[in-house]
Amino acid sequence: MNGSTITGHPPARRADEDEEEEVVQNEEVEEEDEVEGTHASALQAEGSIPRQRRPLADHVAKDGPEEDPGADQPPDHRHPSPPSPPPPPPPPPTTGSRTLFSSGGVSAAAVPALDPANAAGGRTSLSDISLRAFVLGQAFMAGVLITIGLLLLPAPFSSPSSSSSSSSSSSWLGWWWWWWRAADAHPYQPLWRLSFFLAALSLFHFLEYWTTARYNPRYASVSAFLLTSNGSAYNIAQLSAVVECVVAHLLLPAVWRRLRQPQPPPPSPSSSSSSWSSMLLVGLGLGLTALGQATRSAAMIQAGANFNHQVQTRRQHAHQLVTTGVYAYLRHPSYFGFFWWALGAQMVLGNRLCAVVYAVVLCRFFRARIRKEEEFLVRFFGDAYLHYRARTWLGIPFC
Predict the structure, then answer these.
(1) Following DSSP, what letter does each residue of 309-377 receive, concatenated?
(2) Which among 151, 96, 131 has a CA at the least distance from the CA of 286?
(3) CB neighbours of residue 359 within 10 Å
(4) How confident is the model over 243-276, as pLDDT tens digits?
(5) H helices of 156-217, where?
(6) CB-based contact 219:312 (threshold 8 Å)
(7) Is 99 strand, coil or helix?
(8) Is the pTM of this model over 0.85?
């Protein structure tokens, strides 16, 4: 047959035609990418979308600050993400503090809550404690300076070097004897006793609070100064000592001299027959005052939390029987210290009447107090305290 019909698959396309079609498609894709890139650059210039950040590796290589790895992702200009809100501020403290003022939910300042006991008039009032400490410090320094100044006043008669005296008068004892006779004959001599008493009394009350605040702060209250907590009898006793010193050493001698002789002659060393006894009495008084203060302060320090100005009727959890230090020899060293401190101060003042009255009153007071206190101590510690009491002593007469 001349005409024939061909059946089956169409003939295969040539390879060169396929390559041409792929080139055309690639060119179209590149043109679309260029259009999108141009549109993105225009948006970045207008500020619509942020610029694309450099890769993290290049950023770190230039010693710059580290960036979030998520920042390397290309921005989505079609759906920009809103900025994240700042973290909420921490809440102001509420336990043991109060906020002074706040603005916009942010606390401006917070201070510790005030303990009512520390307010004015409270048990541990800070203003009352500071005021008492300041007054006692000023009184102590004034007493010391006045005492030194009065003792250095010029004597009303010459020194032993300018007078015809024995060779022993040029010795150290002779100079001391001359100075004491001169000071004893000085018209303002008794005033140094008062200023010394002011200094000793101020130091005593300050150390009462300081030792309590340092070694037993739980009981460091305003009453620990013992300025008013001892009662009116204590304050009257101290005032009576000052009055007797002024009357006995200033008023009575002046009145007696005026009654006997309107114009007394100037004093001389030989006219003071009691110089030796006066010097020994003052020296003994100074020693007892220093011994009593040191013993009482040492007792309060060594006892620590076991010491209290009030007799304890119940045993505390940490209450222990102290038997070391000064307590190894004295059963009640704080009472011992105050007793001899008070008598020594009266000796320095030269108060005969107050010295006797002080001794009688303090003996009666401490005898009653010690008996009451030891009854509770026996209940607290039993045989341990009985053995301790048997081997120690009080050091206070008639107790």
Answers:
(1) SS--SS--TT-----SGGGGTBSSHHHHHHHHHHHHHHHHHT-HHHHHHHHHHHHHHHHHHHHHHHHHH
(2) 151
(3) 17
(4) 999 888 877 766 655 565 555 555 554 444 556 7
(5) 172-185, 191-215
(6) no
(7) strand
(8) no
